[in-house]
Design goal:
By secondary structure, this protein is an all-alpha fold. The protein has one domain. The longest helix has 28 residues. It is built from eight helices and no strands. Helix 5 runs parallel beside helix 8 and helix 6 crosses helix 7. It holds the Pfam family DUF6198.
Amino acid sequence: MNKTYARVFAYIVGLIIQSVGLSLIIRSDFGTGPWDGFYVGISNHSGLTVGSWLFVVGILLVFFNSYLIKSKPNFISLITIFIMGLCMDCCLYLLDFEPDQAEMQVLTFWAGLLLTSIGMSLYVQGKFAITPADQLMYALSHRFRLSLMWSKTLTDMGALMLAFLLHGPIGFGTIIYTFLCGPFIQFFIPKFERFFTQKT
């Protein structure tokens, strides 16, 4: 497989899988990640969809990140959030259900977390622009000389506070997502890297 085609395939398919996973987490009503909770919360208080707010907030973050690191805005990252926003709106429309039993909520959440981790691990193989929310972590680290761990914690805490104030779907699943999504991604990334290295 041509290396460029493999990267494009990984990028697009990864974003689609991630969008399906995030949509399942939202539908589980068990708790979402901080940023997704923020998007859902602000969507519930407006006429715009979750995907639309993902894109709007992403545009604002592109300029804010540019200000933090004192460089030109990275508009390429808007492609990533445009695809994600569109896919999430489609997935939330198609996955229009609410699990009414605790077992189904937990099962839906874990299926969503697994798919989200796989999708994120796959889309980064494309080596295109990361999302503005992820770029914010690097911008804070660069501007204030913080470790990436502290920058990630600060950005997630900020999004979590906004989600809480907007009555977003924050719950027990939020804790699980916060502590396990990273390790899951670390588990899957090397496997995808080996696969695409062999295929190109």
